[in-house]
Amino acid sequence: MSKATPRRSRHNRHPSNRIPAISDYESDAAQMQPEYDYAPPPPTRTNTELNLAVLQRYLPSIRTILSIAASAVIYTFAPAEQRWDKSGVEGTMFVCAQGPLPDDPAQRPRLCVFVLSRRGLENLVVDLARVSHVEVMDELVIMRVEDDGSSTRRGEQVLGVWVHNDKTETRDVNAAVIQESWKAARVAGRTEDQGPELGPAMQAIGSEGRLTIDDLFRSQAEARAAHGAS
């Protein structure tokens, strides 16, 4: 009797349910992701955009910043004594373009010099349409401001703006922009006074948030009178 031929072992196959799944990284990551999503970070804004947002809280009509001086000091001229006095107003200076008044049929552009005071709550705003003359003398930008008819002191009032030259061209650039903006404002012509413009920041601190030219010179005259009486 012959020996039985041994059977060949059959190839063992894994059942289909035991085949390891191929990993899909993106699918796995999606399944592991929490149900909530984090909000994207707010968009970054430039320094100019941040400065514009601050100024518009005081004067919403400001549309564009034409030039910036990080540090400026305002002087007033005393004609009787023929001298310049510090006004007490100093801070960052902006030369700005404003939108036209809503009731102005000609929709004339407006321009101003805005000094954001670092020494108090009162900021100085000079309407360049009220300035009759601008010149640069030594380190001062001199502006002659016309009387608007509401002041107790008649005649022009003279302001001097001293700009800290933190960079080589800072003083020259700001002086040139003030002169060009003044020329544009004079060509456009003066608009009727609509009263003080109050943005949210002005409303929060009251009427003291804006220092008029008349207030500035009145306080300087009172200070000189008090000094002379002492």
Give the structure's gist in a few sentences.
Helices cover 26% and strands 30% of the residues. It is an alpha+beta fold and 230 residues long.
Chain-wise SSE layout:
Blueprint: H1 25-32, H2 47-56, E1 62-78, E2 83-98, E3 110-117, E4 123-127, E5 131-137, E6 140-145, E7 157-163, H3 170-188, H4 200-205, E8 210-211, H5 213-229
Parallel strand pairs: 4-8
Antiparallel strand pairs: 1-2, 1-7, 2-3, 3-4, 5-6, 6-7
Kindly list the characteristics that best describe this protein.
mRNA-decapping enzyme subunit 1; mRNA processing; 8-stranded mixed sheet; single chain; about 25% helix; cytoplasm; about 230 residues; PH-like_dom_sf; PH-domain like
The averaged pLDDT comes out at: 79
User: So, CATH architecture?
Assistant: Roll
Extract low-pLDDT stretches: none
Silhouette: globular
Percent helix: 25-40%
Notes on the protein architecture:
- A hairpin with a 2-residue loop joins strand 5 and strand 6 (140-145).
- The protein has helices at residues 25-32, 47-56, 170-188, 200-205, 213-229, and strands at 62-78, 83-98, 110-117, 123-127, 131-137, 140-145, 157-163, 210-211.
- It has five helices and eight strands; from the N terminus they run ααβββββββααβα.
- It has an eight-stranded mixed β-sheet with strand order 5-6-7-1-2-3-4-8.
- The protein is 26% helix and 30% strand.
- The protein is of the alpha+beta class and 230 residues long.
- The longest helix has 19 residues, at 170-188.
- GO terms for molecular function: enzyme activator activity; mRNA binding.
- It is found in: Cytoplasm.
- Residues 1-16 have a biased composition (Basic residues).
- Belongs to the DCP1 family.
